[in-house]
Amino acid sequence: MRMDGYDDCIVGYVERFGMGPVLCYDKEKVLAKLTKEFGNREDAIEWYHYNQLGSYVGEGTPCFLITDKDDVIDQ
After folding, report:
1. Where are the domains of the chain?
2. CA–CA separation, 39 vs 29, rounded Å?
3. Between 44 and which of 3, 13, 35, 58 could a Cys-Cys bridge form, CB atoms 3.0 to 4.6 Å apart?
C-alpha cells in the first residue's frame, strides 16, 4: 500500500514472517513534507499521528522508520 504524494519519503520495505512486505517511509521526511504543507511542525505532527500513523488499512499498512531513538514513543 502506497501513500499518495510521498514516494520521495520511501526508504525501502519491511519483511515480516508469514506476511508480505510493506513499504517503509522515513518519518522525518514525511514530517518535513507535512510541515511545508501546514506551515508548522505541531500541526504536521498532529496530522501525521492521526491520519498516517493512526490509520490501519490491513496487512499492507505502511510503516515509518524512526532514525532518532529519542523520537520513539513508549507504547
Report:
1. 1-22+51-70
2. 15
3. 35
